[in-house]
Design brief:
The protein is α+β, with helices and mostly antiparallel strands. About 35% of the residues lie in helices and about 20% in strands.
């Protein structure tokens, strides 16, 4: 009996230790932030010409790429009430402003907005508002920001530097800014740094609240009523 009790104690003690270690390990695991996950997704798409292979629910452009990168259950960068005159970039920016998420500082995983990247209203002038969006990948020691975006039919990396927004390269030949707007009949070409319109961070505040039981019940009742009418 004594031997049996000892064996049982050792077995249960070992199981308890293993369970305790597993719990501790689980607690010690770093929580993957929304921005980190979105950035990982965006980076994995670099070089792709279309988003259709991943999803048919978003537009195959810059705003669609950012939406898809952050897309999760009850989380969409677009607001529920997209206005008729808005493009995707403007709508996302409006939601970011409403949530208080706009910032002037680029950080990895943040959204970066650009203005006047193309002649949206086709009048040949620089008056097109917010027209492009990407995701910040990293910020270099010299202030050069690398971002991932979909432009010219391709998911790619580009750079901008807010300290030297009009400079293509530095004295050592390192690229500071990539071209983002082509030269037009009435306008010159523009570097990415010249067209940056701000940034926005994305966290759980972007996620829609879980529907309440009462709301779910109402939806179920409506569904039953519609079925009955058919």
């Amino acid at each position: 009996m004594w031997v049996g009790a000892l064996v049982s104690a050792l077995v249960w003690g070992g199981a308890a230790d293993a369970a305790s270690k597993a719990t501790a390990t689980k607690k010690d695991r770093p929580v993957v932030q929304l921005a980190d996950r979105a950035l990982w997704r965006a980076k994995s798409w670099v070089g792709m010409t279309t988003l259709a292979k991943m999803s048919s629910t978003v537009t195959d452009d810059c705003s669609g790429m950012t939406r898809l990168a952050f897309q999760q259950r009850r989380l969409d960068l677009l607001p529920d009430d997209v206005l008729p005159e808005e493009n995707g970039v403007t709508a996302i920016h409006r939601k970011a402003r409403a949530l208080g998420m706009l910032t002037e500082t680029p950080t990895p995983g943040a959204l970066v907005f650009f203005k006047n990247t193309f002649d949206r209203n086709r009048d040949g002038l620089i008056n097109d508002g917010l027209t492009h969006i990407g995701i910040v990948e990293r910020v270099g020691a010299d202030g050069t920001v690398t971002f991932v975006h979909k432009s010219g039919g391709l998911v790619k990396r580009s750079r901008f530097n807010l300290l030297h927004p009009e400079a293509r390269k530095d004295a050592k030949g390192h690229i500071l800014n990539d071209w983002l707007r082509r030269k037009g009949k009435k306008t010159r070409g523009y570097m990415a740094g010249e067209l940056v319109a701000g940034f926005a961070s994305v966290d759980e505040r972007w996620r829609s609240p879980e529907p309440t039981r009462m709301a779910s019940a109402k939806l179920a009742v409506k569904g039953d009523a519609r079925t009955a009418q058919r």
